[in-house]
Amino acid sequence: MTVTASVALTTKLAPTTTALRAATAVLWRPDGLRQRYLRYLAAMYPLVRASVPLLERAAERCAELDDPAARTLAAYCTRHAEEEHGHDTWLLEDLAAAGAGPPAVPHPLVVELAGAQYYRIEHEHPVALLGYVAVLEGNAPGPRLADRLAEATGLPDAAFRTLREHAELDGGHLDDLHRVLDALAPTPSQQTAVSVSALHTADLLTRLFLSLADNPGENP
Question: Please, which of 16, 39, 128, 180 could form a disulfide with 202 given CB 3.0 to 4.6 Å?
Fold first, then answer.
């Protein structure tokens, strides 16, 4: 039986699940949760702000390639950029509702998460971005997380729009990504680029969550 590209990616990511879930559990532990949630929002804002430009640049790079799958990949990136448009505004609104604002300087791990994708798009192949998207959308917040955090932190419901929206949207987005990845029928080297990008992203996201959980500072 032939293993599809999406199944191969899911299989390679499976060992990262335990560490990422453990980091998420530490991030959302009850003590100090209010300030930790504000730090989370402040970190997510620049990361989400980078999403649309990354997708748009990947689509542009596809147009420069003599690659039979590039047109399909470009169409996906363009469509997904439209779907992601304005999500950074949700985070600004969440921060404002919580009485906070965006960070003056992005978290270094956020810069590395997005920056690694720019490198891969420019110097490897834009298909690598699918590994990044697969990890971010494959680890979407659970459907009850926003309600639990709202109750535990005492913050208003308006501070949790991004969590609620992504809990609803990202499962469908991941299914779409898997369909596109399989339709692309990536070459072995392209499949490796997707997998390496995904594994790197999972590691960085785990480290980011642990960093946010361990930060003892008062400010987000």
Answer: 16
Longest Cα–Cα distance in the chain: 54
At 218 the pLDDT is 44
Q: What's the CA gap between 206 and 146, in Å, rounded?
A: 20
Q: What is the pLDDT of residue 173?
A: 76
Collect all residues with Cβ–Cβ distance below 8 Å to 65 and sequence separation of at least 6: 125, 126
Residues 28-55 have pLDDT tens digits of 999 999 999 999 999 999 999 999 999 9
As given in the structure block, the two tokens for residue 205 are 């996201």
The class of domain 5-26+34-214 in CATH terms is mainly alpha
13 neighbors 138 (Cβ within 8 angstroms): yes
Residue range 137-187, pLDDT digits in tens:
888 888 899 999 999 999 999 999 999 988 876 556 788 999 999 999 999
Classify residue 101 as left (phi > 0), alpha (psi -120 to 50) or beta: beta
